[in-house]
Write a structure and sequence with these properties.
By secondary structure, the chain is of the alpha/beta class. The protein has four helices and four strands. The radius of gyration is 14 Å and the shape is globular.
């Protein structure tokens, strides 16, 4: 792993969980972590309830766009965090994988997305600590 670890967040649509995780990581770690995210079947846009929930904690993900995961991103990743993509998530031998079991916020109202957002925030803080990255909270 380099001095600046690269974390790749993967979910199916790259519109909710992985976007919130990427937003939390950018917010807490700044340029101390390279953040990538992708999906196996990217949606047309980021989940509006996820955008709203993140804005409530001061994190703006409105300009993010769901993207497919790439072989380049996989090759660069020191850690791959999967969230609900199961067998569709790619696997690269020798890369550290972490699977976060989280409710899918797709189609949920913001009231039900908030607990997912908060859970992701806690998990990102723990991941950053494991990576030895100072999280500015």
């Amino acid at each position: 792993m380099t001095d600046t670890p690269t974390v790749l967040f993967l979910c199916v649509h790259n519109a909710g969980r992985s976007q919130m995780a990427a937003g939390w990581t950018r917010h807490l770690a700044g340029d101390r972590v390279t953040v990538l995210s992708g999906g196996s079947q990217p949606a047309d846009r980021v989940n509006p309830a996820a955008v709203e929930a993140m804005s409530e904690v001061g994190i703006d993900i409105t300009n993010q766009q769901p993207m497919p995961w790439t072989d380049e991103g996989l090759a660069r990743a020191d850690v791959v965090v999967t969230m609900g993509c199961g067998d569709t998530c790619p696997y690269v031998p020798g890369t550290r994988y972490v699977d976060w079991e989280l409710d899918d916020p797709a189609g949920l109202p913001v009231e039900r997305v908030r607990p997912v957002r908060d859970d992701i925030g806690r998990r990102v803080q723990l991941l950053l600590a494991e990576l030895g990255v100072d999280a500015s909270v």
